[in-house]
Specification:
Length: 118
């Protein structure tokens, strides 16, 4: 991977694949995965909101501590690790900029839509 790869999109894509593999037997994994994915989907579309990054961390940490199997615990590692080492990339997306220039929907959202999403 190089600077042309968007870390946020890579994490979103990876989580999207994993969500379908969760067995839905316990709450942290089955419900919280979908919440994490919903936030990441919004962020890469330019609809991220203040507080989203903190919410991502809270949910991911909760999954890691409460998941009943190693799949659930490991699945959120990309979220937590990327937020630790590439937090500036997440923050850029909240300002409608993708450092890798790969999230094409960023910057296309009108002010009105941003207010409606808030
Ligand atoms: S943490 Fe493990 S047991 Fe729980 S829903 Fe996820 S995959 Fe299933």
């Amino acid at each position: 991977m190089d600077e042309k790869v968007c870390v946020v999109e890579m994490v979103r894509y990876s989580l999207n694949q994993l969500v379908s593999e969760a067995c839905d037997r316990c709450h942290p994994c089955s419900k919280a995965f979908k919440n994490l994915l919903a936030i990441l989907n919004r962020i890469v579309k330019g609809l991220g909101e203040a507080g989203d990054l903190e919410t991502l961390e809270i949910i991911a940490n909760r999954i890691q501590s409460q998941a009943r199997c190693e799949f659930g615990k490991a699945a959120v590692t990309p979220v937590l690790t990327s937020m630790r080492y590439f937090r500036n990339e997440y923050e850029s997306h909240l300002k409608q900029r993708c450092p890798a220039s790969s999230c094409k929907e960023l910057g296309r959202v009108s002010e009105g839509a941003l207010k409606l999403a808030a």
